[in-house]
Amino acid sequence: MNRLYSFSILLVAVTFLLSSCGFGDAAEKAEKQADKFHKFLKAGNETAMLNMVHEDGMSSDPEAFKALMHKMATETTITKVEKTVGFNSSINNGVATVRLNYTLHDKNHGEITEEIVLQDSEDGVMKIIALNYK
Length: 134
Known about the structure:
It contains three helices and five strands. The radius of gyration is 18 Å and the shape is globular. It has helices at about 1-45, 45-50, 60-75, and strands spanning about 80-85, 90, 95-105, 110-120, 125-134. Strands 1, 2, 3, 4 and 5 form a five-stranded antiparallel sheet that branches. It is of the alpha+beta class. Helices cover about 45% and strands about 30% of the residues. It has one domain (about 1-134): Nuclear Transport Factor 2, Chain: A (Roll), CATH 3.10.450.
């Protein structure tokens, strides 16, 4: 009985370790993609920004999403991007979703708070599924 109990605890610990590594890997991939997105944003490269949008990101209101991207690409002059501490991630049916928060410093508008949500896409790259600015 004691052996079975020890084995069960070991199994639970290993499972937790493996699942938490998946969250860290997903967060790291998402941060790299967010950095890439911010480089395009700073350059005002709207086409490259739109190419980073997840196939499901445009499904609910594609015109509003495109308008937001256009506005950010043309009406901002981002001088600095700061990541806020932490991230929120989940894995559902093997698909990772990561929510990251940033403070964008804009030459004309001051500080802009950004929430960027990235998700695994069909081509294996994390792509933007939602953007929120304040």
